[in-house]
Amino acid sequence: MDGLRDFLAESGFDTDQQRAVIKQFHRRQLHKGELFGQAGRICDQLAFVEKGIFQFFCDRNGDEITTYTAGPADFLVSLGSFLKQQPARESIRALTDSIIWVITKQAFTQLRHDLPPFETFYVGILEDQINCIEESRYNLLTLTAEERYQRLMAEEPHLLQEIPLQYLASILGVTPRHLSRIRGHIR
């Protein structure tokens, strides 16, 4: 709860507003391998990660493709599904034992309506997600696999220790074998 409270405080919410928002969240523990969201189902919850690492992934011809990872102080949501209330195209799995704080779509929408600073907060989250998606797409299209790996090493070195090799390879758009060659070349 402290992580969520701190995040809200850093986002400009006063103490009473923090209490109003936090009251709408409930704590949930997920074990390694457990799903938060599943492809084909409507995502009607959003979660704040207090502890843990999560993998966003989809299936392509029987192969799991990791599209994103999230860790502490990140949000979990299949955004298109949550916003449009359509079936999700991706699943979200805990890669470690995790603690998250979950809010329903209904409570989220009510907060947007009742608490003006929450609407501003919501727009900020959307803008961050759009920037993240754009950066990821740009990197995937313009950088080599080696350059993407070097950027990962510089910007998120903890992921190299916490995420299994096959998921890292998928994030970088390469096979695990190719990632091993890249790692050997860079060392």
Automatic annotation (TrEMBL):
Pfam families: cNMP_binding (PF00027). PROSITE patterns: CNMP_BINDING_3. Residues 9-111 form the Cyclic nucleotide-binding domain. Signal peptide: none annotated. InterPro entries: cNMP-bd_dom, cNMP-bd_dom_sf, Env_Response_Regulators, RmlC-like_jellyroll. PANTHER family: CRP FAMILY TRANSCRIPTIONAL REGULATORY PROTEIN, CYCLIC NUCLEOTIDE-BINDING DOMAIN PROTEIN. This is Crp/Fnr family transcriptional regulator.
